[in-house]
Amino acid sequence: MRSFFNSPTWRRLKKNKGALGGLIVIIISVIVAVFCYFIAPDASPYANRIILEIGGQKPGFEKPFLLVRKEKPQQVSFFKRLVYGKPDVYDYIPINSFSETKDSVIAFRYIDEDVSERISYAKAALAVRPVVTHTYWLGTDSYGRDILSRLIVGTRVSLSVGMITVLISISIGLVLGSLAGFYRGWVDEVIMWFINVIWSIPTLLLVFAITLALGKGFWQVFIAVGLTMWVNVARLVRGQVLAVRELEYVEAARALGFRDMRIIAKHIWPNIVGPVLVIAAANFASAIVIEAGLSFLGVGVQPPMPSWGLMIKENYNFIITQNPMLALAPGFAIMLLVLAFNLLGNGLRDALNVKGRL
User: Fold this and answer.
1) Of 211, 214, 225, 347, which is least surrounded by CB within 10 A?
2) b/e string for 111-127 if b means 16 or more Cβ within 10 A?
3) What is the pLDDT of residue 176?
4) What is the pLDDT of residue 320?
5) What is the secondary structure of 224-251 as a DSSP string?
């Protein structure tokens, strides 16, 4: 790691302000994705705390809540909270005002504008601090869920889709492209025929077919998107291997009697890593957009998981009504993260001196 930060590649990358800014955004996004349930105001699983009375509120909405203990609160470990979130220990009841007596709390429950209901709870049934005030900085959706919290947790979904998609596409594309470029002949013809068939199918149509075959869900989206994005990698790797296989160090490895797989893995792949990293960054950005599109169309991540595309689908009707931020916030998040990966990809292309090869 230290040698990388002292390398010419890192020095060239640092000079590219756009790439450096994109890298900072990506690092922040990764930290947010890992610790999302410790950062989000709503730390319940999937940030799915439903409070129907406050649905569709605008950014900056503030409301006091009466905290009523649940009958059987669930306690979770640090690791489970990190991965799945922490179930609410209290029921959150929106109120307009409250007063305390010696052993109870009397409040006026918020039902709608100018509509309230008088309620009373014994202090033993409430939290130590019975009333808290929450501010919804980006407003609430139609179910009364905190948009900011769902946006934060949704970062994990988008980055997970991008990462697993890149791993799948790089793995398949690297193997098939290397075989086609190294062996040429009938191997190249068969692989290129298969690549051209997949290339001719529209990406979304292929994703739909794979998703319908595997079913709707979280992991199915990863696989579906990954299996449609390896073609670009395979074509690029094939071209790089065709150019590299005739160089002297490859001929020397053959003369020493090394096996073909060792030559490909230990001698060719390290020398074509630059172009592969550039296309990996581009595929990461494309995967985020495709996942958002699939979720918007209803064949991607399923509720209540907070995918950014699903959030746009659930709230796009608010764009032309009173609260457009419900749909615009996840849209801006998608735009920012995709832009960051594109800027980083362009910076890597220049820093690794692979501009003329792509």
Assistant:
1) 214
2) eeeeebeeeebeeeebe
3) 94
4) 73
5) HHHTTSHHHHHHHHHHHHHHHTTSHHHH
Q: Which residue(s) pair with 99 in the sheet?
A: 106
**What residue type is assigned to position 18 of the chain?**
G
How is 125-189 classified by DSSP, letter by letter?
A: GEEEEEEEEEEETT-B-TT--BHHHHHHHHHHHHHHHHHHHHHHHHHHHHHHHHHHHHH-HHHHH
Q: How far, in Å, CA of 347 to CA of 281, rounded?
A: 10
- Answer positive or negative: Cα dihedral of 240, 242, 246, 251: positive
Q: What is the mean pLDDT of each run of 10 residues along the chain (358 residues)?
A: 66 88 95 95 92 90 92 81 90 92 90 87 89 93 92 92 89 93 91 89 78 75 81 91 86 85 88 88 90 82 86 81 83 94 90 58
Cα separations (Å) of 342 from 29, 69, 122, 240, 319? Answer: 15, 47, 56, 22, 27
CB contact at 8 A, 284 and 166: yes
What pLDDT is stored for residue 229 in this prediction? 86
233 phi and psi, to 5 degrees?
A: -65, -45
Q: Domains of the chain by range and CATH?
A: 2-30+148-351 (1.10.3720.10), 49-145 (no CATH)
pTM confidence score: 0.89
pLDDT for the residue numbered 305? 87
Beta partners for residue 97, in sequence order: 108
Where b means 16+ CB within 10 Å and e means fewer, 262-277 reads: ebbeebbbeebebbbb
Model pLDDT, residue 73: 67
Q: Report how far residue 249's alpha carbon sits from residue 263's, in angstroms, rounded to the nearest whole number.
A: 10
